[in-house]
Amino acid sequence: MINASLPVQFVMLILLGASLMSWWYIFIKMFTLKRAQKSTDDFEREFWAGGDLHVMYQRVSAERENAGEMERVFEAGFREFTKLRRQAGLPGNVVIDGTQRAMRATYQRELDGLESHLSFLATVGSVSPYVGLFGTVWGIMLAFQGLATVAQATLAQVAPGIAEALIATAMGLFAAIPAVVAYNRYTHDIDRLANRMESFMEEFSNILQRQSNKAV
Amino acid sequence: MIPADAPFVSRPASSFLAGVLALGVHGVFLLLLVFGVSWQTQHPAPVMVDLWEALPAEPAATKRPPPPRRAEPVKRMAEPVPSRPPAVKEPPAPKAPDIALEKKKTDTRRVAEEKRLAEAARIEAETAKTAHEKQLADQKKRELLRQMEADALSQRIAAEAAASADRAARLAEAQAAAGRRQTELARAVGQYRDLISATVRGNTRLPDNLKGNPEVRCLVRLLPTGEVLSVRVTQPSGNAAYDEAVVRAIELSSPLPLPADRAARAAFVPELSFVHRPKE
Is the ipTM of this complex over 0.90? Predict the structure, then answer.
């Protein structure tokens, strides 16, 4: 690796950096998604247990810093709902529309936070094999160029150079494979979370609509 | 109300732990790479099949060790024979208590019958019994001694046989080692001769007008490190350009590969007569 030519060394350095970064993001996303799934589970259980919505809102807004994604959607929707209800004379569907908009905005923001850095994993997964291949091709080119200066070629004169160059491909694959696996896994997980949140938003709107009709 | 209304961005993830884990994964991969793949640190030499020439001497070297090994079973079989007779002779010893018991019984009967002479008779009987016992014990001791002597003798014989076998084995081994060393040396010299030829041949640029497979003999003066000091053509091939090319190739190949073994290196340093043919 140390004997490799400068471009090959550069390629290896890039790949090492990419691999380190992608594993870093893999672990960060793993923790984030685990927490998001757990908080969503907890919140859904609490919500459908049929407690008082006001009490729940108080609790969620008190610990806003540590609230889960779905809790924040709930909080944004409920806050908007109470605010709009306080303005007397607004028709019920306007209140619900406003509530839904508030929830959708929070939902988008939360989803954006969950999906951040996933594109990096996708890029590493698709590009690093090519980068590694480039390093290998370059190294093999140099090995054969060195062969041109000797009259009788032996395998021993090219084999070490080629073996060194192949390390670049190995590194590219090492960076790419986990990144692709993690990317696919995390996109799937986030999709499921998004589905759950959207269903929750719809159901929650229905509940709020019933409440507002009752009050009016 | 307004600050509470502000949208919440994202939370800080536990990025430190993630970084440590990422580094750990790479460390594991590096370890796998280092210990899983046997990296060749030295360039593999273009080894020729010349090794066959050095081989015939080896079968003789490997055949020699068996004789001492064959001698061992004989020695081991000889050992048990002297140790068996004592084992057969031993049974008589346990009989002694029986006799003593009978004696005692008759003694007690006599004591019952003749109460008046009881004291004297018993003492008499006791002394007789102790004498008899002593005799028996003496016999036993003698037997034991004889057995021990026999054992020691057999052991000494076995040890002597082992020692002589050992000496023979050591001698044979030394001879084999010497032979092996000789062949090893010859092989190392041949191997490095091939290696040098291959390196020089790789660096030779053959002139265009070369015909056939002419031979050049050169005298190369070397430093112990393999550095080429000077090259002199001792027997030119007739093609001056080719001779030139060979000399240049030898200079280009400096330092030449030399065996690490001091004895083997003596064949190359300080002067190496080098025979070169363009095609081989």
Answer: no
Report the distance separating Cα B278 and Cα B202, nearest Å.
10
How far apart CA B256 and CA B265 sit, in angstroms, is 12
**In the listed set B195, B230, B248, which residue is the last one of a domain according to the structure?**
B195
Considering only residues 38 to 77 of chain A, which have any Cβ-Cβ distance to chain B shorter than 8 Å? 61, 64-66, 72
Tell me which of B21, B200, B210 to substitute to probe the interface with A (most A C-beta atoms closer than 10 Å): B21
Sheet holding B228-235, edge to edge: B228-235, B216-222, B271-276
B208-258 residue pLDDT tens? 777 777 888 888 888 877 788 888 888 888 888 888 888 888 888 878 888
Q: What is the CA radius of gyration of chain A?
A: 28
Domain-located, residue B61:
yes
Interface contact A151-B40, CB threshold 8 A: no
Which chain A residue's Cα is nearest to B203?
A: A150
Name the minimum distance, in Å, from the CA of B184 to any CA of chain A.
24
Contact A33, A114 (CB under 8 A): yes
Is B43 inside any structural domain? no
Contacts of A24 in chain B (CB under 8 A): 15, 18-19, 22
Shared domain for B173 and B215, answered yes or no, is no
Range of the domain at B79: 51-195
Give the model confidence (pLDDT) of B235-245 as tens digits: 888 888 888 88
Query: Do B218 and B135 share a domain, yes or no?
Result: no
- Chain B residue numbers touching A32 (CB-CB < 8 A): 13
Residue B58 lies inside a defined structural domain of this protein: yes
